[in-house]
Amino acid sequence: MSRLRLTLGALGFLLAFVLGVSATSLLFIRAPAIGSAQISSQEKTVRRMPPQPGFDLEVLVNGRPLAEYNARGRTYVEALHGSEYELRIRNPSGNRVAVALAVDGLNTIDARHISAWNSSKWVIEPYQSITIAGWQMSTERARRFYFTDER
Q: Which run of H or E residues covers position 3?
């Protein structure tokens, strides 16, 4: 068994933007957001707002969340090589959000290596969650995520 390290950082593994209201970036699984901004669609201006805590990312295998382990300030899950997995993201806010989700540095929608701000995003309605099963091939089809060895 190997361990899959899940960290959110630098360019952002996960960056949530509240459409037309605020933007929030997340650092670690279940960690509070570090900042946000209000975006006015009419004025195209951005204002800093207080962070929105509580966004949640879970790694699922066979529909069940994997146990999380904390070490050295990071969150890990134990991964069995070759197992397929899904990612579930929860929006705890009353705002509609757009989430730029990258796995192995590539956006899960268009497989591009691009900044979170400029990438394609998943839209999550207030108090809802979405489950991403794999790399999007079309609106109906995804190539499943699976655990591999660290490079």
A: strand 2-6
Cα 1 from Cα 67, distance rounded (Å): 14
Alpha-carbon distance values, 21 to 17, 47, 50, 66, 72 (Å): 8, 10, 12, 32, 34
Query: What is the model's pTM?
Result: 0.66
- Domain boundaries in the chain? 2-146
Closest residue by Cα to residue 77 from 29, 131, 149, 6: 6
Q: Which long-range contacts (CB under 8 A, 24 or more apart) does 38-46 make?
A: none
Choose between 151 and 9: higher pLDDT. 151
Whose tokens are 């899940």? That residue is: 6
Kindly tell me if the per-residue pLDDT of 39 is higher than 70: no
Give every CB contact of residue 103 below 8 A, 6+ residues apart in sequence: 13, 87, 135, 145
Which residues have C-beta within 8 Å of that of residue 94, sequence separation ≥ 6?
126, 127
